[in-house]
Structures are given as C-alpha cells and as structure tokens.
Amino acid sequence: MKLLIVEDDCALNRGIALSLKPEQVLQAGTLAEARTCLDEDVDLVILDINLPDGSGLDLCREIREKSQVPIIILTANDMEVDIVTGLETGADDYITKPFSLMVLRARVNAVLRRKSSQTGVFLWKNFSFDFENMEYLVDGVEQDLSRTEQKLLKLMVFNRGRTLTRSQLIEKIWSDGAEFVEENALSVAMKRLRKKLPGAPIRTVYGIGYIWEQ
Of the N and C termini of the chain, which has fewer Cβ atoms inside 10 Å? Predict the structure, then answer.
C-alpha cells in the first residue's frame, strides 16, 4: 500500500511517515512536489491545508476531479470553515493540529476500511483482495487462488478479529458435503493459502481454529 503525505513541517512529515510504517510512504512539502508524487498511484493522501505554495484545498479538489483515492486533511486550530470546505471539496476525513500520531494512524485505518467496504475491495498493507472480481494481489502481483482458498480467505477477512472454529470453516467451505471432507483438508487449504499470502495475519488458535488478527 502506498500513502502520500503532503505536509511542509519536515519534523511532522517524518513523524507521520514513521507512524505509518510498514506502509510505503511518499513525502511532499509543497503542492508542486505533491503533484509530482501523484504521477504514481497512491492508496491514500494525508493533506495539510496550509502549504507554502498554495492551499491544500485546491489540490484536494484536483484529486477528487479525477480520482476517488481517500483523502484526510490536516487543519490548524480547529478551523471550522476549513473543515467544512475540505469535506465539501471531497476529503474523507480531517484531523486538527496538534494531534496524536496514534490517533492519525487509527483514522487512516478507519478511512481505508470504509473505502474498502464501499468498493468491495479489501485493502491492508501490501494486500488487495477484490472478492467480487476474484482478484487477489500481494505487492501488486496477482495470486492464483483455488475456489477453496478463495472461500477460506473471504471467511477469514470478513470475520477478522474473530476466532472461527475448524467445524465452522469446514461447514461453510464444503457446505454440500462437509461430512465427507477428509480430516486434514482444512489444514492443507490453510497451509497453501498462507504460502500464497506471506505475511497475512492468520493465526492458528490451537485446538479451536483460526483468526485473522487485524
């Protein structure tokens, strides 16, 4: 996942970038630098309104005219006019300075989750799963998942944070003949899925089942 930070305060820009690790981050301090960065595809923009060469609201408007990439605007001193204008221009969220980097990270995650649910595409770190079109990307490279692996992945992602028992997974994946599934079929499917999705936060809950920890 690639994120763009547009902030002229160098220390704050660096701090935001560090808080967003391990995501890939592009950094800009001016509108001109930001426009150059936007020649690349980015997944989210963190945009300060007050920049040395103009207003971030103008860039927000430009981005929204040609893209639906999520935008979080940064404003100073809780300026209601800037907040309202930013949201009306197309920003997805805002945060006022000074702010906690932990809170900003949480806002970023929340915006990405909302955007994923709206588009039907699940985005997290270097993963992009389009369940509707059956396209599964890791670092931008498409992975060939079997129908069983697709069903298993969808169950894990849609129930992230919740432990799914082995029996629940077997019944949903092999609904037409769960009673005839070999005992190790789920373990084999999970092993193959993990191999194709290195780094996926799927943890084995021993004696119970699996959980997508996020």
Answer: C
Six-digit token string for 127: 């993963």
What is the distance between the terminal CA atoms of the chain, rounded to a whole angstrom?
Answer: 16
The radius of gyration computed from the CA coordinates of the chain, to the nearest angstrom, equals 20
Domain residues for the domain of 197 are 122-212
Find the CATH number of the domain harbouring 199.
1.10.10.10
Using DSSP's 3-state secondary structure scheme, residue 143 falls into coil
Question: Do residues 200 and 102 share a domain?
Answer: no
| Amino acid 13: pLDDT | 96
Give the CATH number, domain containing residue 10.
Answer: 3.40.50.2300
- CA distance linking residue 138 with residue 123, whole number of Å: 10
What is the distance between the alpha carbons of residues 118 and 127, in angstroms, rounded to a whole number? 17
Question: What pLDDT does 44 receive?
Answer: 93
Judge contact between 153 and 193, C-beta under 8 A.
Answer: yes
All residue ranges of the chain with pLDDT < 70 are 77-78, 116-120, 177-180
**pLDDT at position 178, please?**
55
115 and 167, same domain (yes or no): no
Total domains in the chain come to 2
Give pLDDT, residue 116. Answer: 66
Is the omega angle on the peptide bond into residue 22 within 30 degrees of 0, that is, cis? Answer: yes
Q: What does pTM read for this prediction?
A: 0.59
- Are 100 and 160 in a shared domain? no
46 in Cβ contact with 16 (< 8 Å): yes
